[in-house]
C-alpha cells in the first residue's frame, strides 16, 4: 500500500508540474502578445503624430488646412515644372532651323546605285511652320527684355527740332556702376587677367565658384587703402565701362544712344569711369583720376571752343562735389592749380541725377552689419542661401575695405569736432541738424508713430537690457556706435579722408576750401564762384526708401576691435586708440537688422526691421533735394548765386516692363526714363532754359525744417 500511495503522489506532483509549466508557457506568450500590442500602439501613435505634423505644415495663416497650396511645394509639382521651364528656355535660346533638302550630290549617288528611299506621306507643314515662327517671334529674347522700342526715341525727337550737339558732355557714373578688371600677373590671379572682376557674367562665375579669391582680389589694403599684395584691379575704360552692368542690364546706354542721335560721339562725349572702391584722395594718388579728368575738360574746351556739360549719377555727384561741383581740387594751388576762375571758364552746367548729396542711410547699415533693405526683405529660402554662401560678416568686411563708399555716409552735425575717433567717447549733445533727433526729423510725416530721427533703434525687449550704451540712436550717435564696431584701420581711414559735419561760419567755409577732407560734404564747403554756371538737380520720388532701422543684438564674439567694453583712449585730440580687451575675451556684440519685425499698420511702415521713408528706392528725399531747394539757395554755401533748378520725376512704372518703362524714377532705372533723357539732351544741345522746376513731393517743406542756422 505504501508503494501505491507513493506512486499516486508522484503522479499527482507530475501533473501539477506539467500544469505549472503550461501556465508559465501561456504567461510568456501573453507577454509577447502584450509587447506586440504595445509596439502596434506605438507605431499607430507615431503615424498619427507624423500625420498631425504634416497637417500643421500645410496650415495657412488663418489656421485652416491649406493642402492645396502645399502641394505646389512638393517634388511632384516642382520636378515636372523644372522640365517644362527648361524646355521653354531652350526654345527661347535655340532658333528653329529649316531641315534642308537632300544635297544634289547625294541624290546623284542614290539614283546611280538605284537606292530608293521610302516615300513619306505628303504633309503640308507650311502652316505649322508659320504659326511656330509667329509664336517664337512674339516671345522676347531673354537678353532683350529691357528693350521696349524707345531706343533713340528722345534723340530723334530732339533732332527733328533741329537741335544738335552744342556742348561737350562728360558722364560720371555712380558707385558700383563702373566695371573693374584684373591686371594682376601674380600666379594666383593670372587666370583673371583682363577679366571683369566686377560687372559681367565673369563676376557671377567667380562669386559662385571662386568666392574667396574673388574677395581677396577686390578687397583693398586696410592700412594704405590701395592694392593688396599680389592683386591689381583697375577700372575699365571707355563708354562700355558703365553702359551696362551685365549683358541686358543697361545703366548709361540709353543716355548714350540718345546723345548719339543728336550728333555726339567719342570726339565730344566722354564717360569718366573710376575705381569706386578707393577714397577720393587715393583716386588721384594711384590713378591720377582728377588730373586726367581736368585735362579732358580742358582739351574739349580748347578743341571745340565750348564749355563742358557734366552729368553725374548717384555717388558720381559726390565725386563732382570733390572735383567739379565744389571744384576744390581743381582750384586748390597744391592740387589742380586751376585758379578761382577755372570753373567759370570751363563748365557750362552740371546735371546731378539722383545725387547722394547728404549721404545714404544704407551706407551705415552695410558698414555695420553688411545688410540693407535688399538683403533683409528676401524670402526665407533666398536669405538662407545668401547667409550660407555670403554671410553678413563677410559682406560687412568687404564693404569696410572700400573707403570710397564711405563718402556717402549720412552727413551729421558734429561741428568743429576735435577728432572723429575721439567722438567715440565725446558724445556731443544736441546737433543732428539735418537728420533729426530723438523727438523729431525734418521728413517725419504727421501722426508718425516713431521718428526717423532715431536712425538706429531697438525694440523694448532689447532696450530694457542692462548693457551700457544700448538704446535708440540719432545719426550722430549711430556714427560713433558704428565706429565702435569697426576696426581701428577703418576709423583712421574715415578720419583722414572724410568729414560729415555742418559748418555755418562763412570764414571757416572759405578755409575749408583747402582741406580735402571737407570736399565731399556740401555742408562744409562752398560752391565755386561761377555765376554763369547752371546746376540741375533731377531725381525720382514715389518709391519707398529705407530711411532708418530697427536693430537687434546677439551673442558676444571675438573680432579685430573692441566693442561695448572700455572706452577709446585719447591722449590728445589727434591720437585715439581702442585698446584690446584684457585676456582677449569675446567682447564684440553681434548686431543686425531685426528682420522679424514687420508692422505696416503704423507710419512710417516697418518691413523686416527697415523703417520706410520717401525717396527713389535707394536715396532718401532729404539727401536728394534738401541742398537743391534750400542749402544752395543761401549765399553761405552758394556765394556766386549759381542758378539751381530742381526737377522731381514721379515714379510711375509700367507693371509689364522689367525696368519700369518710360516713366520710372527708380534710382538706377531713371537713367532710361524719357523725362530725364529730355532734360540732359536739352542742356547739352543749348536749350537748357527750357528745363523748368517741378515738384511732386514735400521736399521744400522738409528742407525748411532742417536747422541750417545755429539758432
TrEMBL record:
Residues 1-24 are annotated as: Disordered. InterPro entries: AB_hydrolase_fold, LACT/PDAT_acylTrfase. The keyword Nucleotidyltransferase does not apply. One of its GO terms (molecular function) is O-acyltransferase activity. The chain crosses the membrane at residues 77-94. It holds the Pfam family LCAT. This is Phospholipid diacylglycerol acyltransferase.
